Amino acid sequence: MIQITKNWYEILKPEFEKEYFKKLQEWLNEEYSSHTIFPPYNQIFNALNMVKFNDVKVVIIGQDPYHEIGQAMGMSFSVPKGQELPPSLKNIYKEIENEFGIKCEENGDLTRWAKQGVLLLNAVLTVRQGQANSHKGKGWENITTEIIKKLNQRKDPVVFLLWGANAKAIGENITNSWHYVLKSAHPSPLSAYNGFLGNNHFKKCNEILKSLGKSEIDWR
């Protein structure tokens, strides 16, 4: 079984018992045994394992894991300490620095955000080395959509940051009016200047959290 905390396992148990997930797991076992797959098998659900369901304050949705050696760690946009910052994360840091007039940490491990209640969820949770989106359409979208649906059902408001088309598509499942949804272009170099840079999402997010009586995120 893929490693997942009891907290999230109980919430997603009905999905794990469905036929599509059983087929997905069989397929993943074959993929991991015959190809180089990221992230490591025990980190697939890292994003969930870092933040309990009731502690989620903010959700940032990515596309799929980084597909080069040593980068993916089971949380969207995050790379282990010591790894070079990927272009999208560089743009995320650039936006944060511009919004707050601060200097972000040089390392790309976003565990520090997760510990504050930021769920760093990818739409697809695994990928083959060097092949972006290679695990798209294999079943992950069913379970990540269900995660969003479960958060949507929660009465306690959540702030969703949706960057790019894939995130916005999953975001269509956020239907309850008490949640907050901020949308923009993706931070990738291909689209960052079409609406990501200057979106002010991090400051807006903190303003929303403050208005809800919740602690703001230290985005550094």
Explain what this protein looks like in three dimensions:
There is one protein chain. With 220 residues, the protein is α/β, with parallel strands linked by helices. Helix content is 37%, strand content 11%. The chain has helices at residues 6-16, 19-34, 46-50, 87-100, 111-114, 140-153, 165-170, 201-211; strands spanning 37-38, 58-62, 118-122, 127-128, 159-163, 180-184. The strands form 2 sheets. A 4-stranded parallel sheet has the order 3-2-5-6. Strands 1-4 form a two-stranded antiparallel sheet. The relative contact order is 0.17. The model has no long low-confidence stretch (mean pLDDT 97).
Uncertain spans: none
User: Could you tell me the number of beta strands?
Assistant: 6
- Globally, the shape reads globular
**Main β-sheet description:** 4 strands, parallel
Mean pLDDT: 97
Q: Beta-strand level of the residues, as a percent range? A: 5-15%
**Which strand order spans the largest sheet, edge to edge or round the barrel?**
3-2-5-6
- C-alpha Rg (nearest Å): 17 Å
**For the terminal residues, how far apart are their CA atoms?**
35 Å
Helix content class: 25-40%
Q: Which structural category fits the helices and strands? A: alpha/beta
**Number of separate helices:** 8
What pattern of helices and strands is seen along the backbone? HHEHEHHEEHEHEH
